Automatic annotation (TrEMBL):
This is Cytochrome c oxidase subunit 5A, mitochondrial. Component of the cytochrome c oxidase (complex IV, CIV), a multisubunit enzyme composed of a catalytic core of 3 subunits and several supernumerary subunits. The complex exists as a monomer or a dimer and forms supercomplexes (SCs) in the inner mitochondrial membrane with ubiquinol-cytochrome c oxidoreductase (cytochrome b-c1 complex, complex III, CIII). The keyword Metal-binding applies. It comes from Rhinopithecus roxellana (Golden snub-nosed monkey). It is a peripheral membrane protein.
Length: 142
């Protein structure tokens, strides 16, 4: 497939070359000039939000997950250009609760807060339910 695309590019380049080579500005189209340009974009299936979130929820709900795996998962999830869904954040916070790691819990909440700042009014809606559920101190005091 790649070879065919390269051949098409080579044919297109040679058909637009002038009689004295590629460096001349005179362009005389050859017989293969009728070839349309080909875009090689991926036409794969579009992943839904549920299909994206399901592996993350499964990853964070593993009973034998350790602190390193959890940090790696959170760091990978935060690098994406998106705000984590509430169910993904809930699974990550529950995993932190199982590991009894308060400092990492605060880091997760801060990361979600930073991501939510891109969308005004979204921060409190996404973070406050977790603070109430896990009996944290007042959010503004953190």
């Amino acid at each position: 497939m790649l070879g065919a695309a390269l051949r098409r590019c080579a044919v297109a380049a040679t058909t637009w070359a002038g009689p004295q080579g590629l460096l001349h500005s005179a362009q005389t189209p050859g017989p293969a000039a009728a070839i349309q340009s080909v875009r090689c974009y991926s036409h794969g299936s579009h992943e839904t939000d549920e299909a994206f979130d399901a592996p993350w929820v499964t990853y964070f709900n593993k009973p034998d997950i350790d602190a390193w795996e959890l940090r790696k998962g959170i760091n990978t999830l935060i690098t994406y250009d998106l705000v984590p869904e509430p169910k993904t954040t809930d699974a990550a916070l529950r995993a932190r609760r199982r590991l009894n790691d308060f400092a990492s819990t605060v880091r997760i909440l801060e990361a979600v807060k930073d991501k939510c700042e891109q969308f005004p009014g979204n921060t409190d809606d996404n973070i406050l339910p977790y603070l109430n559920k896990f009996s944290f101190i007042e959010y503004q005091a953190m």
